[in-house]
């Protein structure tokens, strides 16, 4: 019996070490994107007032401790595991607010068409429900927006993806402790 205990315990322990439970969501330590393996850079819970809204996780080819390091890495994934139901309009409004808070007027003017494209893609989501997964994947020069594993559309441009990433990691992030968590802190 003892000869079976060690391999089984090791397998269970390795599974425990390969994923974390954050806000009741299992966050894997790796993801595959565009044929490349990514590692979990960090994850945390987005709260608004007293409500937990989603668990955000950031995946990169190699870990990075600041925005410049994140933007220098590609491909990358921002994953949002929903903890409550939101309308597509509420999700779009939150993204627009985050874009405006973290990008200059000139940057906003340059990415306005791309932001409108992403909004149109997100409209196709309808409601995002508790336990749905929204992904914002950057590879092949475009941001691929997905819902529950299905890509719904892509928005071309590195500048747009950098602006989008600043929602969580910019100077005025959507939530300061979430930024710290996403950067591995």
Structure report:
With 185 residues, this protein is α+β, with helices and mostly antiparallel strands. The chain has a single domain, classed as Chalcone isomerase (3-Layer(bba) Sandwich), CATH 3.50.70. Helix content is 40%, strand content 36%. The strands form three sheets. A seven-stranded antiparallel beta sheet has the order 3-4-5-6-9-10-11. A hairpin with a 2-residue loop joins strand 4 (36-48) and strand 5 (51-60). The radius of gyration is 17 Å and the shape is globular. The termini are far apart. The model is unreliable at 1-17 (pLDDT under 50).
Q: What CATH architecture do you see? A: 3-Layer(bba) Sandwich
What percent of residues adopt helix (DSSP H or I)? Answer: 40-55%
Mean pLDDT: 90
Strand content: 35-45%
How widely separated are the two ends? 42 Å
CATH topology: Chalcone isomerase
Q: Spell the H/E element sequence.
A: HEEEEEHEEHHEEEEHH
Largest sheet features: 7 strands, antiparallel
Q: Could you name the CATH class?
A: Alpha Beta
Number of domains: 1
Structural class: alpha+beta
Low-confidence stretches: 1-17
What is the overall number of helices? 6
List keywords for this structure.
40% helix; Chalcone isomerase; alpha+beta; disordered N terminus; seven-stranded antiparallel sheet; 185 residues; 36% strand
What would a concise description of this structure say?
This protein has helices spanning 2-17, 67-71, 88-102, 105-123, 158-169, 176-182, and strands at residues 19-22, 25-28, 30-33, 36-48, 51-60, 76-82, 86-87, 127-128, 133-139, 142-147, 150-156. It is of the alpha+beta class and 185 residues long.
């Amino acid at each position: 019996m003892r000869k079976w205990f060690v391999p089984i315990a090791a397998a269970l322990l390795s599974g425990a070490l390969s994923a974390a439970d954050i806000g009741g969501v299992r966050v894997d330590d790796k993801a595959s994107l565009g044929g490349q393996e990514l590692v979990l850079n960090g994850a945390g819970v987005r709260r608004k007032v007293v409500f937990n809204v989603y668990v955000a996780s950031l995946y990169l080819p190699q870990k990075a401790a600041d925005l410049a390091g994140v933007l220098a890495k590609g491909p990358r994934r921002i994953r949002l595991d929903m903890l409550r139901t939101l309308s597509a309009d509420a999700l779009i409004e939150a993204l627009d607010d985050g874009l405006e808070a973290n990008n200059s007027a000139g940057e906003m003017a340059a990415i306005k068409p791309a932001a409108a494209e992403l909004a149109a893609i997100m409209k196709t989501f309808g409601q995002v429900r508790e336990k749905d997964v929204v992904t914002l994947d950057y590879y092949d020069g475009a941001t691929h927006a997905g819902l529950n594993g299905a890509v719904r559309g892509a928005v071309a441009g590195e500048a747009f993806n950098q602006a989008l990433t600043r929602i969580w990691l910019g100077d005025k992030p959507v939530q300061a402790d979430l930024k710290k968590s996403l950067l591995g802190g």
